[in-house]
Amino acid sequence: xxxxxxxxxVFFMTIVSILLAFFIVIHWYSVxxxxxxxxxxxxxxxxxxxxxxxxxxxxxxxxxxxxQAQTITGHKKRMQAVVDLSADYIEHSLFRAEQLxxxxxxxxxxxxxxxxxxxxxxxxxxWVANKDAFMLSHPDPTYHQTxxxxxxxxxxxxIIAEVIxxxxxQGDGFHxxxxxxxxxxxxxEKISYVKYFPQWDVFIGTGVYLNDIDAEVELKRRKLLAExxxxxxxxxxxxxxxxxxxxxxGDMLVHPNANIEQTNALSLKxxxxxxxxxxxxxxxxxxxxxxxYRWDRPDDPNNYSYNKLSQVRYLEQAGWYICSxxxxxxxxxxxxxxxxxxxxxxxxxxxxAIILAFIFSYWITQPITSLAKAxxxxxxxxxxxxxxxxxxxxxxxxxxxxxxxxxxxxxRDNIETLDLKVESRTxxxxxxxxxxxxxxxxxxxxQQQLTQAQRMNAVGQLAGGLAHDFNNLLTIILGNLTxxxxxxxxxxxxxxxxxxxxxxxxxxxxxxxxxxxxxRRQSLVPQWVNIIDLINDxxxxxxxxxxxxxxxxVQLKELELYAYIDSGQFENCLINMILxxxxxxxxxxxxxxxxxxxxxLELSDFDEPVPAGEYLCLAISDQGCGFSKENISKVFExxxxxxxxxxxxxxxxxxxxxxxxxSQGFIRASNNAIxxxxxxxxxxxxxxxxxxxxxxxxxxxxxxxAFKNKLVLLVEDDQxxxxxVREQLISFGFNVIEASDSDEAILLIETIKxxxxxxxxxxxxxxxxxxxxxxxxxxxxxxxxxxxxSGYAYDEGEDVQLNRFPLLQxxxxxxxxxxxxxxxxxxxx
Length: 829
Hints:
The protein is an alpha+beta fold.
């Protein structure tokens, strides 16, 4: 038998042992970890669902409080309107009585009797009394035409007399007291509005019972609770997990089990401890702990032997405990299932590997055994021994067998040729050795390339972090060097040493710019572009990638329209929208691109209200199926897509939205009346030619005398950078006040009068960044002279946004700062 052969036995057992050891190590290392991680993942999912429902309930409670306040306010306004309406009715009735010749006293008596029949809502009515608290009109016969000056509430306090006294002193207003409703024996708390009318010398009042307001609020609360109950019933945790809510008294407000919901559940005990489950849940609320207890299953009722885990959050405003409940077995089931599948796959792979190892060992050892027998025969002097069956193989062993046969034949035919054959084989082995050496060298070279790529990636990450701080240092160095160069201009020896240092600093600035590019910290680079030409070029570029069934129609009426935007990012946005339109009509259709200039008064159907002004309106529409009602409000959300999972990540329109907002524009998604979707973008119209914004143009400089004794605000958190820029501003003639963060700058802007300009860093401590601080400055100070500084094109961590003020890249020289200030000062004038 095969396994009796020593070589095949050892070979087979070695392979099987390696496979078994590998399988055991994989199982020991991965399966427990997988079970643990999957279990934690399921628990975290349960916690996340609980937190979401908690937030929903919190918002519902806030909504209920707002509704209660609105209800009280509404009733108060209604009472005021009722009193004013009653006064109008009295005045109108007296006017008609005068025309008919009826005396004033008789007319008033008739009017007061008529007001008794006036009611509104369910319990609202109007009453009239004079200064002596005599009730001239009241729908209740008990009080009508009676002296109410001695009427007191349940606390013994005068009611009508006290109200009339307060109104006489303070004027009309709202008063709260206890009053007995008609047809009831118990006095209820009531809010009344009373107003004095001197032309008739009467007090007119009306009121509402707080019970009625509470009933409205309770009805609203029940509706909101019903909505919350419906939402919670649609939530599933694991397979049969659920959420439930109970209050401090143990009343189960929301529970999927109809036998438990709307009952007091304090009596439900934990079979493990015999304690009340709800009391235990109250004790661990908002502690991050979980309660484990025994419960039955839907498929095994009344058998309380299954472990469950519950987490609980306490909503203090409503007095609610919101809990999650999930079976431990279900949390572990996914991990067990995954582990079982891994074990099953591993066992199948092990069996297949053992079978293949058996076949492979036979396939390897059989020709070796044949060769061994032939070699044994030849060693005994039998040069006629051969093994032609092994030589028929086409692999390495076949080659070896064939070579062995040739060797024996040549030895038999001519033993003298043995040295020649040995030499030939030696050369063959040397060549093989050379090839192996070359393969090793190529492998080492590939490893070096991989190491270099990893190192370059690490350098790229490091470069972005160094650039900002290095630019601040260069700003200090370059600022002091240029200041020294200007101050000691007559010192030739010093000038010889300063000039190379300044050039080296500028060279350092160029290096940091390259580092930023190298590290791929891309930012918007806004410039004045002819948007007509940009659209035409982009459409020409993208047409080649569209199928023949999709056509593009461009409708551009103007020849020149300028926008201050990043042309590359605008081109990416346009391509995104065109390709989205193409995907929306897979069977072909027409994509229409329309650009117009419109004077808009006000629009509210965009992503936010559009203020009045002139805008460039870019609309891209298709002939597809359009947006559904469910999706039209989500199209700009990140990762939201209606495409198949392998056709889009849902980031295209999110990028378009972000670019439009950074460009101070507005966007809208809508459906065409004749079918298809339409994306509309509004961008501000350019009022001046692009040349007027060139901060380096000599035409933008104004006389330095214009800055004499002007007050400028310098905002910079780095003390050394702030000192350099302060000296530069003083050399221009400015008076400088400083702030080390945006909070200090806000205080200075709001308190100091006569500010002329502001020079500010973009990234700094405080509640505002440089962009936001510039907007605050323009709104508080009647000046547009603002210059922003930054170590990046835009600082890391900030929202990239288009800016209408010059932005100086650190480091910069004094003349660059002066050019920026002059350009802004000229525009302001």
